[in-house]
TrEMBL record:
Keywords: CBS domain, Repeat, Transcription, Transcription regulation. One of its GO terms (molecular function) is DNA-binding transcription factor activity. The keyword Kinase does not apply. This is CBS domain-containing protein. Residues 83-139, 148-214 form the CBS domain. CDD domains: CBS_pair_CcpN (cd04617). Residues 6-70 form the HTH deoR-type domain. Coiled coil: none annotated.
């Protein structure tokens, strides 16, 4: 299976290198009765996509990697920073009512709760807010800090983390999203500043992008 569409000439080049490698660009060009310059873009594509390996003064080798292997290698290189969204935060003293309004206005499924220093203290999901709403409490007077999932029980990630690791965490922890954070040291304690949000939606977008990706 090839996940990257190769044109007929690229397939031909691949076959030639498979049968004759190591082989120089010049020799491939000769076999195809084409100029080296005409072949250059195809060779660049095949090398960048990982089908071929180029060694200076030796020539091109067939890597033997299948399209599926190359797809998986590329997937494992995706990082959080390229797919994260802006975080939506509420203050820990906000009411449950205000959090519900924020969730509708910002059109997100997860809110991050911060303290006065803007450090992460909790997280609120749709169901956390629904659960609070079916009680008899006055939602305007209950602060979110009463109902949120709080630190240190929050699963977080950093923008340099791999997207595939975040996807695994979402599955194993059965949650919809993670805050993307940066550590800050304060009074000998580690605190977290919220930089972004990464959710199942971001991962779905990465999945769609991978499927429609040209080689780059
Ligand atoms: P929902 O509750 O709407 O189905 P989730 O599955 O994301 O949404 O949340 C399930 C529970 O896990 C909620 O109580 C929520 O507060 C908590 N939660 C959500 N995200 C995280 C996270 N990153 N770390 C820890 N707990 C979380």
């Amino acid at each position: 299976m090839r996940t990257i569409e190769l044109n007929q000439r690229q397939e031909l080049i691949l076959q030639i290198v498979k049968d004759n490698g190591p082989i120089t660009g010049e020799q491939i060009a000769e076999k195809l009765s084409l100029t080296r310059a005409t072949l250059r873009p195809d060779l660049a594509i095949l090398t960048m996509a990982g089908f071929l390996d180029a060694r200076p003064r030796v020539g091109y080798f067939y890597t033997g990697k299948t399209g599926a292997q190359l797809f998986s290698e590329r997937l494992r290189k995706l990082t959080v920073k390229d797919f994260q969204s802006l975080p939506v935060v509420v203050n820990e003293s906000s009411s449950v009512y205000d959090a519900i309004v924020t969730m509708f206005l910002e059109d997100v499924g997860t809110l991050f709760v911060v303290n006065a220093e803007a450090h992460l203290v909790g997280i609120l999901s749709r169901k956390d807010l629904l659960r609070a709403s079916i009680g008899k409490q006055d939602l305007q007077s209950v602060p979110v800090s009463i109902i949120m999932t709080r630190m240190p029980n929050i699963t977080m990630c950093a923008s340099d983390d791999l997207l595939i690791d975040v996807a695994s965490l979402l599955i194993s922890k059965q949650i919809d999203g993670l805050p993307v954070v940066r550590e800050v040291k304060m009074d000998n304690a580690v605190k977290y500043e919220v930089l972004g949000r990464i959710t199942k939606t971001n991962i779905t977008k990465a999945f769609v992008q991978m499927a429609s990706d040209e080689i780059h």
